Amino acid sequence: GDQYRIVRHFHFTTWPDFGVPEPPNTLVKFVRSFRERITTDNNKPIVVHCSAGVGRSGTFIALDRILQHIKKYDTVDIFGIVHEMRKERVWMVQNEQQYICIHECLMSVLEGKEELIEMHENAGYEDDETMAESGI
């Protein structure tokens, strides 16, 4: 009865199945927006899923892990991170286009260009004004 949970739902609606967001570096903004809004409490689960749970989900998770890895270690190993993910779930980062997207996103971060793409330039996700929290 008195127990409740807060669920935060992030939905990137314009990311096509088997594809990548256009422009790809809008994914950087989405990942950063997600990372800023989640709690740092490691006891709370994070669920990432697309229709099959490998292509778009894998691309999102890989980019998030890479950005976290860079903050902590100041190194980059895209292949290594994707390889580790694929040991846990086959087909994470499903195709070449998604693998290239990760590289393009990382290049935009390293070159400082991701700030040039504003959220309003891709309506695939909403800002805080339209986010809803649900108690379950």
Outline the secondary-structure elements.
Blueprint: E1 6-8, H1 26-37, H2 55-73, H3 78-88, H4 96-110, E2 133-135
Task: State the main characteristics.
globular, mainly alpha, about 40% helix, about 140 residues
Question: Could you characterize what this model shows?
Answer:
42% of the residues lie in helices and 4% in strands. With 136 residues, the protein is mainly α. The chain has a two-stranded antiparallel ribbon. The chain is globular, with a radius of gyration of 15 Å. Residues 116-120 and 132-136 have low confidence and may be disordered.
CATH topology: Protein-Tyrosine Phosphatase, Chain A
| Share of residues in strands | under 5%
3D shape = globular
Helix content: 40-55%
Mean pLDDT: 85
Q: CATH superfamily, called what?
A: Protein tyrosine phosphatase superfamily
User: What gap, in angstroms, lies between the N and C termini?
Assistant: 11 Å
CATH class: Alpha Beta
Low-pLDDT regions? 116-120, 132-136
Helix/strand-derived category reads mainly alpha
Whole-number total of structural domains: 1
- What is the tally of beta strands? 2
Outline of this structure?
With 136 residues, this protein is mainly alpha-helical.
